[in-house]
Amino acid sequence: MKLIPTKNIRPGFELAKPIYDERGRILVQKEVRLTQSMVHRLQNLGVTYVFIREKDTEDIYVHPPIPDQQRMEAIQQIKETFKSVEVQGISNQRNYLLEKAANKLNYLVTEIAAELGKNEDVIHYLSDLLIIDDYVFSHSLNVSLYTLALAQEKNMKRTELEQLGLGAILHDIGKIILPDEILNKPGKLSDAEFQIVQSHTDYGFEMLRKVPGIPLLVAHCAFQHHERLDGSGYPRGITEAVIHPFARMIGVADVFDAVTSNRVYREAMLPHEGLEILYSGAGTLFDKSLVETFKKTIALYPNGMTVQLSDGSEGVVARQNYQLLERPVVRILKENGVKVSPYDLNLAKVLNVMIIHTNKLSPVK
Question: What InterPro entries has UniProt attached to this entry (predicted)?
Fold first, then answer.
């Protein structure tokens, strides 16, 4: 299978994986040949990338960090929790609902952590093949996946994983109070609007710290995940020594998912571009050791991605080298623009060749 940008797909392409909504309903089935109307629909729905079938890449597969069905059920659970709390204007009712939801969310975190522990693969691109009616729900799950993968790479204890995972799922719960027209504004926010967005950290903290069944540390994850080591973050502008390690971890995962997700005001970056954003702030905004550990948990160039190499060849990422994720195995399909008999090139062994472009920059021909 090949991963290509939705903006580059054409009628006649055949899907290699189905596209779902968050309730698990199939919107477009796999092995369907796309028509022009289907192409337009996918683009209008905000689908960023799709997997298509191709003879020379038929054996290339992407293993999801958790099964698709589990991912959709998790998003639905998060959505139900956030929505039930959103409609309750009285804090006591909110506290009751959050305490009730905490048990389900704790179980959800345990399931996700167990699934990630069984899966030896790194996390591949998450912003594809699933259409969500509200970014906050999918973002909350994605951040928990990235954060738990980071925690497991650091060999954290189970009790720490559970609190950290719950903190990651609930880190943005304060956004349920914010106006949709500001959260979903396609243009640049005014200073006043940005102050409103920043307030979600205070709202989340105040909501969570009063719930008996939720550890205070979880509330601090919501409070501190936008704080930065050099004091340039919000809401309090605290520095490295005061920011809790859990909030630092969630902060890394939060930024990575935010920049690699499609939003109304900008296109999604690819994983290696998202990691560059983190590295540009390593040591000043983000803990450098966390960024380096996080790099070990994600596929910088996911399986199925079209890449151009420095020797003039072009191909598709076939599999990962887990100790050297920036240098995967590439299925070579063209040399200097001419089709060749496909062969695999292991960039971990051929060190004089490197990836110079991805399919975001190389339109399908």
Answer: HD/PDEase_dom, HD_GYP_dom, HDIG_dom
Asked if 309 and 354 touch (Cβ cutoff 8 Å), the reply is yes
Is 283 in contact with 230 (CB distance < 8 Å)?
Answer: no
Beta carbons within 8 Å of 291's beta carbon, 6+ residues apart? 252, 275, 278, 279, 282
Which parts of the chain sit beneath pLDDT 70? 22, 87-90, 127-134, 263-266, 359-365
**Peptide bond connecting 235 to the previous residue in cis, omega within 30 degrees of 0:** yes
| Helix, strand, or coil (residue 309) | strand
| pLDDT, position 227 | 98
Block residue for tokens 């550890």 = 215
d(CA 327, CA 317): 10
CA 189 from centroid of its chain's CA atoms: 23
Taking residue 245's Cβ as centre, other Cβ atoms within 10 Å add up to: 13
Domains and CATH numbers, the chain: 2-53 (3.90.105.10), 68-295 (1.10.3210.10), 306-358 (no CATH)
Contact 281, 248 (CB under 8 A): no
Summary mean pLDDT of the chain = 88
CA 224 – CA 337 distance, rounded (Å): 50
Task: State how far the Cα of 103 lies from the Cα of 90, in Å rounded to an integer.
Answer: 21
* Secondary structure (DSSP) of 21-52: ETTS-EEE-TTPBPPHHHHHHHHHTT--EEEE
Q: For the full predicted model, state whether its pTM sits above 0.85.
A: yes
Output the pLDDT for position 283. 95
Q: Any idea what DSSP says for residue 177?
A: G
Q: Would you call 21 exposed, middle or buried from its count of C-beta atoms within 10 A (0-12, 13-18, 19+)?
A: middle
Measuring CA to CA, how many Å separate 73 from each of 2, 14, 77, 363? 26, 27, 6, 34
- Supply the pLDDT for residue 133: 58
3-state secondary structure at position 27: strand
Phi, psi (deg, nearest 5) at residue 340: -130, 165
Q: Any idea what the Cα angle at residue 287 is, between residues 285 and 292, rounded to 5°?
A: 120
